[in-house]
């Protein structure tokens, strides 16, 4: 989990190579080639007219949280094992897509949540195997490289 958090911090500090691919009035999505796997990294950025704490409540990866209520790509989120108050092993499921042509997915990740002195909040995750969470029938087991969300306070 700490390695995933460090990788996200490195992505955030390195502005080079990002190319814009989509943008609306609220969100800009960029990509760049990954140095870890054959594929691309993606990042979405936006400023929301809300306090960082309220935004964090909507995105933080916790069982029973708000993410499953607004994010159509997250069907369920459960804690498999709480390692500490900031680190846990979690299972996230996604619904089927494209009229059920794409099967539901499940992801098992080790997740860390952090808050920094400047008020920035971070959730970082990466794939892990756990004996209490073998692959489940009717789901395709997905694999996450280091991924996560930053919630960064901005002036005003």
List keywords for this structure.
single chain, 156 residues, alpha+beta, Alpha-D-Glucose-1,6-Bisphosphate, Chain A, domain 4, six-stranded mixed beta sheet, three-stranded antiparallel beta sheet, 9 strands, 15% helix, 38% strand, START-like_dom_sf, lipid transport, StARD5/6
The total domain count is 1
The top level CATH class name = Alpha Beta
The CATH homologous superfamily corresponds to START domain
* Cα shape: globular
Instruction: Please give the CATH architecture.
Output: 2-Layer Sandwich
Largest β sheet strand count, sense and barrel closure? 6 strands, mixed
Low-confidence residue ranges: none
By DSSP, the count of extended strands is 9
pLDDT average, as an integer?
93
End-to-end C-alpha gap: 32 Å
Briefly note the structural class of the backbone.
alpha+beta
The fraction of residues assigned to DSSP E strands is 35-45%
Count of runs of 4 or more consecutive helical residues: 3
